[in-house]
């Protein structure tokens, strides 16, 4: 498609917007770098430039997503959780198995106040990808900054789905109770 030729600045960024807007799944920095014959670092810079121009691009563990126009209001909630790093997969599985999308993780940080990251995890496959990515990058979970305490923004089609997901987490001892 690109004949191994480097695609330059503005043209490359226009392509990125186009691909992200039309893709039905997140695209990774590596994938975008391969398509444009530049390094992943250049893609990271491009995405920053596009975000500064107010393009609604979200960096998630699965890759970059172009946030399409707001979807119809769904049920959403913030929950306070606590678990060990090893229990991360189990927690996320419990949530997605109830039809819940985990939008964000947030923690309290001594220097930066609230830190948040987009997860956008909504299937077991997303969870597997997130956990594989976590392992391969040896990155630390945000919750490791706070001994496992973190918040999640979760959403689902119905309040009932959220209720039963939270009940399942609670039974497993993952919900922070006073
Ligand atoms: Zn969690």
List the SSEs and their pairings.
Elements lengths: L8 H14 L6 H8 L3 H13 L4 E4 L2 E4 L8 E8 L5 H10 L3 E9 L3 E9 L2 H14 L11 E8 L2 H13 L7
Antiparallel strand pairs: 1-2, 3-6, 4-5, 4-6
Helix pairs in contact: 2-3, 4-5, 4-6
This protein binds zinc ion.
Q: Can you walk me through this structure?
A:
Helix content is 40%, strand content 24%. The protein is of the alpha+beta class and 178 residues long. The strands form two sheets. Strands 3-6-4-5 form a four-stranded antiparallel sheet. Strands 1-2 form a two-stranded antiparallel sheet. Helix 4 packs antiparallel against helix 6. It is elongated and about 55 Å long. The structure holds zinc ion. Residues 81, 91, 150, 152 line the site of zinc ion. InterPro entries: 3H_dom_sf (IPR035922), 3H_domain (IPR004173), HTH_11 (IPR013196), NadR (IPR026043), WH-like_DNA-bd_sf (IPR036388), WH_DNA-bd_sf (IPR036390). This is Transcription repressor NadR. Keywords: Metal-binding, Nickel. Pfam families: 3H, HTH_11.
Instruction: Give the number of domains.
Output: 2
**Overall CATH architecture of the largest domain:** 2-Layer Sandwich
**Ends distance:** 57 Å
How many individual β-strands? 6
Tell me the structural class.
alpha+beta
Mean pLDDT: 89
CATH class of the largest domain: Alpha Beta
Sheet with most strands: strand arrangement: 3-6-4-5
Bound molecules: zinc ion
CATH level 4 superfamily of the largest domain: 3H domain
- SSE pattern, N- to C-terminal: HHHEEEHEEHEH
Query: Ranges with pLDDT <50 over ≥5 residues?
Result: none
Quote the beta fraction.
Answer: 15-25%
Question: Could you name the CATH topology of the largest domain?
Answer: Histidine-containing Protein, Chain: A
Helical fraction equals 40-55%
Task: Categorize the overall geometry.
Answer: elongated
**Which oligomeric state applies?**
single chain
Rg measurement, Å: 18 Å
Keywords: Metal-binding, Nickel
Binding site for Ni(2+): 83, 91, 150, 152
GO molecular function: metal ion binding
Protein name: Transcription repressor NadR
